[in-house]
Write a structure and sequence with these properties.
336 residues, mainly alpha, two-stranded antiparallel sheet, 14 helices, transmembrane, EmrE-like, transmembrane helix
């Protein structure tokens, strides 16, 4: 079951989730559009989706610092509250079918940290796919396509979590399906009608971008359902889940994805190849990229933390219904 939080706390979580989520989408696009001199002395856009993926996991892993300090404080408090020498501590017995047992039984080993490798792997795969798609899609269309996560989360809620949805919820899911189809058509037509051929994105790449986003949402829908299971069916704190997801994602990204994207040979900037040496050279040649990268690092950390608190207090479906609402914030910023 969900760990109920005060209504004011839930509203705060949701507000911060939307604000940091919108900021993260905008900063991600700004990183792609900012140019810098690369390793070969040519000024090119900083189109580095795998770097953004790696930075996200470093940010998530950083929650171990406050979590470690919190645990140290709790342990110190527990030591202070322990009965002093000479005091008699009552023996608490627990009744069982076979008689009475001492309540202080050996603790079972907690394997939660290992189970979190599943959402960590999902997060790495889905984020890389979305970052690669963002190279060829406008941020508004990219964000709206992310609404397809509602479809997959609803299906997984019914078939995996064994929970029923109301008729109005299914109507909402059907509306999302129609909207996604219309968005895909609109993105393709917009690309085909662009007058400036220098900035025109090929229709094929736009379609691939749309497909990548939708597949990524299926993976992320499963990820959030697994997170809900970890948070609701056990006593795992939200910050612990965020930290371990970051750790596993960082390990897989550093030792698998970085070498893989380095050795895959294709046209630079299409999201399929990436040279991390070139990434650091471009970072050092433009301080604006560093500023945007730090902002991205912080915003994705807070987005994931507040998202986990929402899942912990409500459900994965609630979190994923809120996610597409970032579009409203992005539109407001675009208009301003």
């Amino acid at each position: 079951m969900a760990n109920r939080a005060p209504l004011a706390a839930v509203i705060f979580y949701m507000s911060m989730f939307l604000i940091f989520g919108a900021a993260n989408s905008l900063l991600s696009k700004l990183l792609y559009k900012t140019t810098s001199v690369n390793f070969y002395g040519v000024e090119t856009p900083f189109e580095k989706p795998n770097f953004q993926n790696w930075a996200m996991f470093v940010g998530m892993m950083s929650v171990f610092v406050p979590e470690f300090l919190r645990r140290c404080y709790v342990r110190r408090k527990e030591k202070e509250d322990e009965p002093s020498y000479g005091e008699i501590e009552p023996l608490i017995l627990k009744e069982t079918n076979g008689g009475y047992l001492n309540e202080q039984q050996p603790k079972q080993r907690d394997w939660t940290w290992l189970k979190i490798i599943v959402p960590g792997l999902c997060d790495m795969t889905a984020t890389l796919m979305m970052n690669a798609a963002l190279v060829n899609l406008p941020v508004s269309i990219w964000q709206m396509l992310r609404g397809s996560i509602i479809i997959f989360t609803a299906l997984l809620t019914v078939f995996y979590r064994k929970r029923c949805l109301y008729m109005q919820q299914w109507i909402g899911v059907a509306a999302v399906v129609i909207a996604i189809v219309m968005l895909g058509i609109a993105a393709t037509l917009t690309s085909a009608q662009e007058g400036d051929t220098s900035k025109k994105t090929p229709i094929g790449l736009v379609l691939i971008g749309c497909i990548l986003v939708i597949f990524a949402q299926a993976i992320q829908g499963f990820q959030t359902i697994v997170e809900e299971t970890l948070l609701h069916d056990s006593t795992t704190p939200p910050m612990t889940v965020v930290g371990w997801e970051g750790f596993w994602g960082f390990m897989m990204c550093t030792f698998f994805m970085v070498p893989l994207t380095y050795f895959i040979r294709s046209t630079p900037g299409n999201g399929l190849t990436e040279d991390f040496i070139d990434t650091w050279v471009m970072l050092s040649n433009n301080y604006l990229i560093i500023i945007f990268a730090v902002g991205f690092f912080f915003s994705i950390l807070m987005f994931n933390v507040f998202g986990m608190f929402i899942i912990n207090s409500t459900s994965a479906l609630t979190r994923n219904v809120l996610d597409p609402m970032r579009t409203l914030v992005i539109w407001i910023v675009s208009v301003i």
